[in-house]
Give the backbone structure.
Amino acid sequence: MTTTEKQTAAGSPGDGPNLKAEGLYTRTLPTYFPLALLAGCLIVVAGAFYLLGAFHPVPVAVVAGIVYLAAVTTVSATVENGRRAADRFVTGIVYCCFIVAMVPLVSLLATVVVFGMERFDLYFLSVSMNGVIPSMDAGGVYHAIVGTLVITGLATVISVPIGLMTAVYVVEYGRGRLKQAITFFVDVMTGIPSIVAGLFVVALWILLFGPGNTNGLAGAIALSVLMIPVVVRSSEEMLRLVPNELREASYALGVPKWLTIVKVVLPTAVAGLTTGIILALARVIGETAPLILTAGMASTRIQANPLDGDMMSLPVYIYKAVRDMGLSGEAGVYAEQRAWAAALTLILVVMLLFLAARLVSRFLSPRSR
């Protein structure tokens, strides 16, 4: 081989690294190949399970995922190179983990929708259980919706100012041991079981008003005990994400610190703060144990006064319906239908709250002004 031929094979000095020698210039599988391979694996594995008489979606999905990972890695290593094969293998594991994580959520939502729609209608949403006995094919969930909105609304009114101002103090003003103590106790409160919060409010209520005084306000206070630490932690993290340059620019203009927080820091973090508040609300809206102890479970009438005796809520309504499923005859069937329909109603209420929070954060965000 002449000198010119050797230079051509190795590449001239100005051509940079030899891509072919380093394995960087290789063939590439079509973009549709992974999806087509996955579909083929599913068809083959499902057919094999069907022929064996043991077809079930879960084992079919697991085996198809394992076969797909092995196949895509082998084909990629053969056609492309080892680096891309490893990349496709890890990418496949990530997608499989995502699907595994989504299966319980999709299964839960599908189950609740399928069983809940048997009784979910306008009548069910617009009437209460006042005067309805378990064996009657009547009654609805309106009083529980009202109670849920009142109790969680009061809990939000109590928790958001306390949690937000605590987070502002920790981030903007807190120093030394007091700040450390607040952070420590907030972390401890985050892990408090809900039943403990209910027992705490029951004990407090007994000291103030005597035994047997359950109402919606007591339930709201119990939920606020659970909600405050979540608001504090989420708000604290959102406030820390606000760039210090914005604060310093405001200080340079002579704006006092409190006004900088009100006009600069909080509006900048409003989207994250709203999301944190909704997460805290979602944390408590489905709690049952503290509401059974504080708000009671005997109310069947429509009421919006949190001080007027027991107040029903959606989680407690579902609990009562599930407990009545043990009744004989048609009463158990009707109770099961009410339980599924109330669960669907609770999911829809949470979704509407999330949608409202997103709209609020969108309109209050500085970018939309």
The radius of gyration is 30 Å.
